[in-house]
TrEMBL record:
SUPFAM superfamilies: Cytochrome c. It catalyses: a quinol + 2 Fe(III)-[cytochrome c](out) = a quinone + 2 Fe(II)-[cytochrome c](out) + 2 H(+)(out). This is Cytochrome bc1 complex cytochrome c subunit. It is found in: Cell membrane. Residues 48-225 form the Cytochrome c domain. It comes from Catenulispora pinistramenti.
Amino acid sequence: MNTLSARRRHPLAAFVVLFLALGVIGATYATLGSSSAKASASVAATPEQLVEGQKLFQSSCSSCHNMNGQGVQGSGPSLIGVGAAAVDFQVGTGRMPAMQIGPQVTSKPPIFTQDQIDAMAAYIGALGAGPDIPDPSLYNGDPNDAASVSNGGVLFRTNCSQCHNVAGAGGALTDGKFAPSLRETSTKHIYEAMLTGPQNMPIFNDNVMSPQDKKDIIAYLVQTRTGSNPGGLDLGSIGPVSEGLFVWTIVLGLLIVFACWIGAHTTKASRARVAHFEATTGKDASDND
């Protein structure tokens, strides 16, 4: 009995094993996460860049986001932890600084240079961990790679086409919001949008969608801009509703106008023949009825 008791496991042994297992899993996850972050990290910010970024931010953005990026109730959210990629996207596409608060902030030509955007991105990125500006190798998708385009098309149609249309032409949402067209959006900004999930868009970070899958989506979108359209005129690729509307309003309208034109010219031709008959014979054409 004493031997069996000595061999019996301690009541806390299971908890110790579970604790060690969780520690190993956490360490593995942290290692993989850090390696993934290094793959997309930009060049480390210099002290001068951080100072310049802070000045630009406080002079242009602090009225909505507070002097230190904590946010202002009713005006702008906190930027602590959003990362440099969010700043590069929002400011690089001209969405920020916003002109006015509304259902959705629209893109416009940026008012800052890329160096200034990089400085602000570095400053905000230093306030809290978040997605960094991706390396060009991550978003330079190849539209000539058939396998990449095919996989990207499947992923885009599954995850993105409900809002952005199957060809990335954009579409309307609720409450005055809309999914913007991706036809002219740069590949870097498309990748950053997937990383950061601006406005109504969900976040597709590397735990949700791999960097290669995001790159394949970009390859598909670039291919839709440059590839041939086997169906003929694409009418902007904005969907069957607009195409049906085009047929009913434009095509059918033209057919009605053409039919009226034929009818009018046929009547004029008949009257001309009657007048010629009466002029040459001196008879009333109605007498022949």
